[in-house]
């Protein structure tokens, strides 16, 4: 296993071989998670704190399950009932929790860069569970695992990422990961939802869904991220669905064996037709959720190994 990282803050810090190490270990955790007894001792004796400053269903639940299945003591900080509501800053909150000696801190925050800042202030390993429009690394890793298991590889595929690219940390992390693994990436959406500077990632940009989907192996749909929008970006949801919502007619332009993905939460009838989302022959949305637990177990296991090695080295220095 090659995985040198101290924290998991973004895909941009990972080398292709580190990404492969996460996916290989996650494959093993998929097998464990399908057993009746899903227990490992990879994090035995360790403490994991989950701090979610933004709503979450999939990411928070899967990080909690992942930690528990690996034998960690897991604490979910209830941000809504915490002293954050009395004005305590993110850094003071993190320093307070750091004084309780956690080993792993899982953080979601609405501000881009907040998790990186926090990682510079604490002694434990920090995992980014999504920061603003910046990155959502475990989402991109679970998407990569889903694609690799479905397509048998994670290279040389044509992947269409469709919808609100501008406000999406999922799109950004996927763009970086899929680029590192040498895939052809197409971004499809209205010009108002396309960030500037996408060309630097080597992606092709389309505003016509049918054109962009031609020959795609993977169709990744995104929600309109209204919580990060400042003003109106589309004429109406009805018009948006007509032009950019994935339905059977538009999907027919992709390869016949193309898979349909969505990170969730979905807005049926806005970016995706409900029947496509539920079509077990095309949609891998539930598989993505399953892979999420395994990928988060793999990430925390690998970070814990590095943390133990670092602490072992420091202890040896002290002894000398
Ligand atoms: N995909 C994702 O991040 O979902 P949640 O917001 O429910 O965690």
* N-to-C SSE string, H for helix and E for strand: HEHEHEHEHEHEEHEHHEHH
Provide the spatial order of strands within the biggest beta sheet.
7-6-5-8-9
Q: How would you name the CATH homologous superfamily of the largest domain?
A: Aspartate/ornithine carbamoyltransferase
Tell me the strand percentage band: 5-15%
End-to-end Cα distance = 29 Å
Low-confidence stretches: none
Number of helices: 11
Task: Please give the number of β-strands.
Answer: 9
CATH architecture of the largest domain: 3-Layer(aba) Sandwich
Morphology: globular
Category by helix and strand content: alpha/beta
The radius of gyration computed from the alpha-carbon positions, rounded to a whole number of angstroms, is: 20 Å
